[in-house]
Q: What sequence folds into this?
């Protein structure tokens, strides 16, 4: 098949996903110039892992905030006007939207975790379901694109965003597998696996996020946007949206601005590895705690696990520390606070997910021994998250205002 964008063949560009801030900034510098018309024309095409010059690939660094959304927006808006880079800017805000939305409906994450455990247990008592599940995650369904993406995910820890939607749709509507198992498969293997973006994207495909509206993968669409690499057979042509018997209540945001005066212990987590830059003074001591294992009751993929650990160690390197792992965070935090001789711990505010759960469990224990924890909110989150009230398009209308408040407007 004739390539639609032959110029991209000459720019074959597998992304070097190295878990260092310097590499994230390098990738941002490389891609910033392409966030205008080039991005609009080619962003929906999945050309394969060796040809990623049409997408930024910044999500693994952004997911752990080795680089931040604000840094990305600053660099992109320095290269293009807000109108020229509108599509790319919106993609940055999709991540922001999902985080802000889940922050206001945390029961979605809690219910997903409960349903996941129940569904995993059902595999033990349902051999047919277990066999279908194994065929899906090992790439042995006979659906060419799906099987390729299943193997690509496990091997590379990354998938093009369009491929993720197609994959989720085939999983839910053609293979008729529980969406929670698919979301878990992604969260365990994606370097950018994020509780909010991943959970809500799967719910969106299935018709749970925007109730009644589904995303249905079509063979012609897949063939077009993979430049004819795949021609899947047997995809369902119609489907009813998923439903659930519960409503998730809205929880008001509480994003108070707290500063930590010295002396304090700085806690870095994989939710925000640029947390040191949030503080108004240098810490007495620094500790970095991993929560990757909390993504799933199933084993975490090597690529995702190693990227998170490498990112943490890169952030800790200036402080001559290395990442620590503990199920009960109160134990290492109390020990580190005593070693540093402080009674205050400061950390970047963690949204709903494994890090947040560990912080919530540790805080009353810390308080019981006289240690106060301060969760410092980024201005970007405080400004943008409240706009994620309903659908994305409500927030999209507010993007110019958010950019203005962040001093990022033209």
A:
């Amino acid at each position: 098949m004739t390539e639609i964008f032959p110029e991209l063949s000459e720019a074959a560009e597998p992304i070097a996903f190295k878990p260092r801030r310097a590499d994230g900034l390098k990738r941002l510098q490389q891609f910033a110039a392409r966030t205008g018309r080039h991005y609009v024309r080619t962003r929906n095409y999945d050309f394969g892992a060796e040809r990623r010059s049409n997408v930024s690939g910044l999500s693994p660094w952004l997911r752990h905030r080795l680089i931040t959304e604000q840094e990305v927006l600053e660099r992109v808006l320095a290269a293009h006007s807000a109108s020229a880079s509108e599509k790319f800017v919106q993609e940055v805000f999709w991540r922001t939207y999902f985080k802000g939305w889940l922050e206001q409906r945390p029961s979605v994450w809690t219910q997903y975790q409960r349903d996941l455990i129940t569904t995993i247990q059902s595999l033990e008592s349902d051999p047919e379901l277990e066999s279908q599940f194994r065929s899906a995650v090992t790439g042995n369904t006979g659906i060419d694109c799906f099987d390729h993406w299943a193997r690509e995910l496990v091997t590379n820890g990354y998938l093009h965003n369009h491929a993720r939607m197609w994959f989720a749709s085939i999983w839910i509507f053609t293979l008729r597998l529980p969406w929670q198992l698919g979301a878990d498969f992604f969260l365990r293997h994606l370097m950018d696996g994020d509780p909010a973006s991943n959970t809500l994207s799967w719910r969106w495909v299935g018709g749970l996020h925007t109730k009644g509206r589904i995303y249905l993968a079509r063979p012609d669409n897949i063939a077009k946007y993979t430049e004819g690499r795949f021609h899947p057979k047997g995809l369902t042509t119609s489907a009813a949206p998923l439903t659930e018997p519960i409503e998730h209540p809205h929880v008001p945001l509480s994003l108070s601005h707290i500063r930590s005066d010295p002396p304090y212990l700085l806690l870095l987590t994989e939710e925000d590895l640029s947390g040191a830059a949030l503080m108004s003074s240098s810490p007495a001591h620094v500790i970095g705690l991993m929560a990757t294992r909390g993504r799933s009751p199933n084993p975490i993929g090597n690529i995702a696990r190693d990227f998170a650990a490498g990112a943490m160690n890169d952030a800790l390197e200036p402080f001559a520390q290395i990442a620590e792992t503990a199920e009960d965070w109160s134990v290492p935090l109390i020990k580190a606070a005593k070693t540093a001789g402080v009674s205050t711990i400061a950390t970047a505010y963690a949204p709903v997910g494994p890090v947040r759960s560990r912080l919530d469990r540790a805080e009353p224990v810390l308080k019981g021994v006289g240690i106060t924890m301060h969760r410092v909110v980024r201005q970007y989150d405080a400004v943008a998250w409240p706009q994620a009230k309903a659908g994305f398009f409500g927030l999209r209308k507010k993007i110019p205002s958010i950019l203005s408040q962040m001093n990022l407007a033209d």
